[in-house]
User: Which sequence fits this backbone?
């Protein structure tokens, strides 16, 4: 069964550094999402992406964050200058579109900012 | 605003039924979901219910939706140790990017 994949599974970075989290959504899906889960807290929506543009973003998704679909398979989340509070598990999700509403999640990337 | 609440912990004996409850505030929610998260793992979709349904059964899982009270529950029959995990309910909102709002998660512990 097709799955959403994410790399790396873990990333440790220094405060102020840039990180790029990578996702490969399910191949025929059209809508893509990033969520994050700070340890012990709720899963929070960051951004949704469709047709090569952001369709919705949360207050968390400020100018430090950007998303890109650089080719036909990858979907990336870039954090320009990481802060300690960006430490979290970042989940990518995708859904087919049309009447198919269900979002399928990847295994997550655990980001630790030191 | 949008809010989804769940109780934090539930402990059951193996073989018993588990009932995990969720309340939400957005009356325009179209779909409601249950996801399972095992330790260190991602979010696994368990089941979902469309907002015009009252009940959905899927093998050991039964979802009940009370739209008037904005209350969702997940019943797991014959709970097994492998069901120990955190269970999140989530609601899908109309419009925009159709984002999901997640509950706090309920940690289910299954004891022998």
Assistant:
């Amino acid at each position: 069964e097709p799955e959403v994949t994410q790399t790396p599974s873990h990333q440790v970075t220094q405060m102020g550094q840039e990180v790029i989290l990578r996702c490969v959504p399910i191949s025929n899906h059209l809508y893509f999402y990033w969520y994050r889960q700070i340890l012990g807290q709720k899963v929070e929506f960051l951004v949704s992406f469709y047709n090569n543009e952001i369709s919705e973003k949360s207050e968390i998704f400020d100018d430090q964050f950007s998303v890109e679909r650089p080719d036909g398979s990858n979907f990336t989340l870039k954090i320009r200058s990481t802060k300690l509070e960006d430490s979290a598990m970042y989940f990518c999700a995708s859904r087919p579109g049309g009447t198919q509403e269900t979002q399928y999640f990847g295994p997550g990337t655990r980001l630790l900012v030191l | 605003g949008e809010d989804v609440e769940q109780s934090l912990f539930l402990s059951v004996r193996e073989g018993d039924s588990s009932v995990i409850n969720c309340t939400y505030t957005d009356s325009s929610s179209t779909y409601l979901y249950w996801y399972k998260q095992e330790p260190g793992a991602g979010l696994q979709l368990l089941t979902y219910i469309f907002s015009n349904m009252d009940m959905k059964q899927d093998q050991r899982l039964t979802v009940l939706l009370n739209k008037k009270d904005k209350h969702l529950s997940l019943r797991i029959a014959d709970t097994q140790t492998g069901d120990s995990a955190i269970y999140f309910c989530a609601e899908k909102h109309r419009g925009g990017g159709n984002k999901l709002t997640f509950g706090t998660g309920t940690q289910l512990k299954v004891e022998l």
Remarks:
- Chain B is about 0% helix and 55% strand.
- Chain B touches chain A at residues 30-31, 33, 35, 41-45, 48, 88, 90, 92, 96-105 (CB under 8 Å).
- The mean pLDDT of chain B is 90.
